[in-house]
Structure formats: C-alpha cells, structure tokens
Amino acid sequence: MKVLCIGEMLIDFTPVNGMNNTYTANPGGAPANVAVSVARNGIEAGFLGKLGNDDFGKLLLKTLKDDNVRVLVGELTEQATTTLAFVTLNEAGERSFTFARKPGADMLLCEEDVCAVDFSEWDIVHAGSVSQSGAPEKDAVLSALKKAKDLGKLVSFDINYRDKIWSFDDCLRECKKIFPLTDLLKISDEELPFVGGVENIPDFMKEYDITVLVLTLGKDGARIFYDNTTCDIPSMKVKAVDTTGAGDAFWGGFLSSMLRQGITKTSDITMDKLVAAGKYGAVSGGLCVQRPGGIPALPFKADIEKEKN
Hints:
Blueprint: E1 2-6, E2 10-15, E3 23-28, H1 30-40, E4 44-48, H2 55-66, E5 70-71, E6 84-89, E7 95-100, H3 111-115, E8 124-128, H4 137-150, E9 154-158, H5 168-178, E10 184-188, H6 201-208, E11 212-216, E12 222-226, E13 229-233, H7 246-260, H8 271-288, H9 301-308
Parallel strand pairs: 1-4, 1-8, 2-6, 4-5, 8-9, 9-10, 10-11
Antiparallel strand pairs: 2-3, 6-7, 11-12, 12-13
C-alpha cells in the first residue's frame, strides 16, 4: 500500500496566539501534508517535489525523513529559495495566505525528476493545482499523472485554489488538463465554481470520467459523490484553533482508509467503503484543527482509531 504525493512543500508562518505580528515556522504545503498524513496512518508514502538549498529547505527535508516519507528528489536546489506562506487566522480559526514564491523552489520540479520515478510501485498518485501555476513544474506534474494513469494507478487531485497565487481562469484552464486523468477529486465548497456548482457535479463527473468526487464542507463535514449517488459525512464537533492542513488531514486519512480496505483500482470502489473512508478522514481532520500549524497538527493512526472508538 503506497501513496506518492507530488508538488509543493513550503514553510507556513503561523501566528503565535496572543502575540501580535509573531509567527512560528511550520512545515506545510498541501501535497506534503497529505504525504505525512498517509505516513502517520501507517501507509508507505513518497514525496516528489523540489526544496531550496537553504535553512528552510533543510528543515522540510528533515521533516519528511522524520515521518518516514520517502523523498524522491533528495538534492536541494540552488536555483530558488524554499517557498514561504504567511498565514492569517480569523476568530473561527479559518486561514488565508500570503506567499513568497517568485519563483519558489517547488516550481522547479522538471521532467528529468519525473523520469527517475518508477510509478509502477505506487497504488495512488496524488497532486494539487498549485503545482500547475508555473513551469517547469506544471508540465512535470502533468507528465507524472499521465504516466500513473497509463499504468492503471489511481490518480488523486485536489483543486486547492489559492487566489493569491493565480487567477480563477488560469487555474481552471490548467485543471481541465488534469481532470480527464483524475479518478479521485477533492474540492472544497469555495471551489464549487470549478465544477459548475453543486448541481452540476454529476454531469461534470460524467464529462471527465471521474469516479469519486469528495466535497469538503469545513465544520459541516463532507459529501461523497459516487455512481450517481451521494452520502453526507458529518464532521467532529470541536473548537477549531487552526484549520491549516485540515483538508489534507481529511484526505490523507481518506486515502489511507481506502487502501486498507483493498481499493487499488476503480473497480474495487463501493459507496460503503467510501463512507468508511470518509468517516475516518473526518476524524483525522477534526483532530487536526484542534492544534496549530500544518504538518505538526496532523494526527497519527492511533489517535484517529482511539477517537473513532
């Protein structure tokens, strides 16, 4: 059981509670968050992305290794610094971002890096739209997902739109290249315009031959769309401290549960299995929001299982 995550890893500068204009440097980045979440769930995880040869890049590399995530590009690049994201939190713990990424090291992933990967060993290959916002990374990630799809691997994609990075139209244009490759699509309620609204989801899935779409709804849980049916998954009722990484915690738990239930191809999928995965992911996300930071807040399998029981 193996999940390969491709794309950005960065530093989230998270506000320190009670100290104005004071931040803590936390490792983050959506694909890296998912990789660590999967690893903490006892599933073998890999990360394919570029980091800068600077103190932050070294910290992120150590973070991956400490969580037993296999690093597929081990050499730190001198061509750009590690991407930085400054997080702003409102009273409900909801976050917004400001990025230092012009360019960031993550944008330098290239076809040569992809060609060095044996995609046949991975059961699920996951990426997000931020990787599509600049070259050469966008072409490398698209190539990687095509290779995975050609090998019959499950392709997972998270729209993960960030308006401080690029426009809606530019993001949609690049996402449309990946939708036809996608088996498992994760979107948030804020990203519904990318699929034409909630009422258009069944037609959207049919148009792009997407097997499963999961709509995350924050404190209202999630909704699973599969085989022309839907199922709502309730969230944990907790006080959110920081929602950074919550969707990635949900998705890492969701993918991990799918694999533990024996899902490695679309024909293995049933709604019952998806519901079980959704409930497991909801607990993972609920535990995550109760702690500050991205990767530091991601729960372990034992914590999730304890909460479930």
